[in-house]
Amino acid sequence: MVQRFRVGIVGLQSGRSWAARAHVPALRALSESFEIVGVANTSKASAEAAAAEVGLAKAFSDVAELIAAPEVDIVTVAVKVPHHFEIVKAAIKAGKHVYCEWPLGNGLAEAEEMAALVRAKGVLGVVGTQAPFAPEIAHLRQLIATGYVGDVLSTSLVACGGALQGSGTIPDKKTYGYLLDRANGASILTIPVGHTLAALMSVLGNVAEVSAILATRRPTAIAIDSGEVLPASVPDQVLVSGMLTSGVPVSVHYRGGKARDYNGLLWEINGTEGDIRISGSSGHAQMEQLVLAAARGDEKVFQPLETPVSYRAGLPHEVEPGNVARVYARMAQDLRDGTRTAPSFDDAVALHRVIAAIEKAAETGVRSAPA
User: Fold this and answer.
1) Phi and psi dihedrals of 195, rounded to 5?
2) Would you say residue 166 has pLDDT above 50?
């Protein structure tokens, strides 16, 4: 009989939270491997409401009770970034395996400490950087590895994402107040850029060095949750140029908000024998339907590249739960076989180091290497 792992979810609000949209359907699609035991929120009443709406059996009175519960094998942490550190540390110390949303920590230091705790305790820490597991990215990785475009010469990416919406006036610029404060660790740089960099590096290799500009061109926005006009300390323009360890030059430009025509992601890979374009409606590559197109040799027109159905492997076709389910499937495999195929806390630290290098390069004006 296949072992089933019992999951407790921290942070679930039916219909609107990421856990409700992605984690619950992903875990239910993998019912041969996982069972959702229950949920903990900021209050027992909130947990009871979420459990009832989603159809879960148990609402824990608080996070500590969920972590201590002997019937919980895995703690899924799907709350705001500033709360990751304490919840993840408590779960690890209790001997639980952890699936934590990206960003793992509010900055590199927190991520490094959590990764060290996982290694010391001997539990599995998985981070939710699911973009590399999207079927289109997996297909792209295979195409590049087998020389579809020859030797890669360079890669460039332009995208929209992050908190600020609209294209001009104050009434168009609405978001949650939490996303406007750089101290919270949830910005255009850490979330959509971070997720998409995870996909880019999974295809083309690690980042060796970067130069960067981070600019806040929209200094205020309306907070949806309070209606207040708040100052924005997060950047809404992220410009990065650098080199991968393979010697491939890379450029990235993210701008805050949505694309006017919903074509919010254009990533190009230029090779000696052809080019591939990856596109999507926004720069959140982890949660958008991606489309591949290519032109090779003397071709002047890009043609669609269909991703084989085998890359979906019977998991949900909807992008959000499908990508998250692929990470959970790897987690189950790792727990059973002792492998390390799911994105780990050490992988998260490596990505946090790239983010930190971008921040350092922007602050100093000097090229920086992840370290």
Assistant:
1) -60, -45
2) no
Q: What one-letter code names the amino acid at 196?
A: T
Q: CA-CA distances (angstroms) from residue 96 to 18, 88, 118, 276? A: 22, 9, 10, 42
Give the structural domain span for 256. 132-311+352-364
**Helix (H) or strand (E) run with residue 292 in it:** strand 291-296
* Residue 164 confidence (pLDDT): 57
Task: Please check whether residues 290 and 196 belong to one and the same domain.
Answer: yes
Average pLDDT, rounded, for the chain: 94
> Could you tell me if residue 371 is inside a domain?
no
User: Quick one: pLDDT at residue 238?
Assistant: 98
Q: What is the pTM of this model?
A: 0.95
Assess if residue 75 is contained within a domain: yes
Question: What's the total number of domains in the chain?
Answer: 2
Query: For the domain that residue 204 is a member of, what is the CATH number?
Result: 3.30.360.10
What burial class does residue 270 get, using C-beta atoms within 10 Å of its C-beta: 0-12 exposed, 13-18 middle, 19+ buried?
Answer: middle
Q: Which of 143-147, 257-261, 363-367 has the lowest mean pLDDT?
A: 257-261
Q: Is the pLDDT of residue 303 over 60?
A: yes
What span, in angstroms and rounded, lies between the C-alpha atoms of 77 and 208?
A: 31
Residues 153 and 281 in one domain: yes
Do 142 and 246 have their domain in common?
yes
Q: Are residues 170 and 304 in the same domain?
A: yes
pLDDT at 170 over 50: no
Type and span of the H or E element at 318 = none
Say if 98 falls within a structural domain: yes
**H-assigned helices in the chain:** 18, 24-29, 44-54, 63-68, 84-93, 108-121, 135-145, 194-204, 319-337, 345-364
Query: What is the amino acid identity at position 19?
Result: A
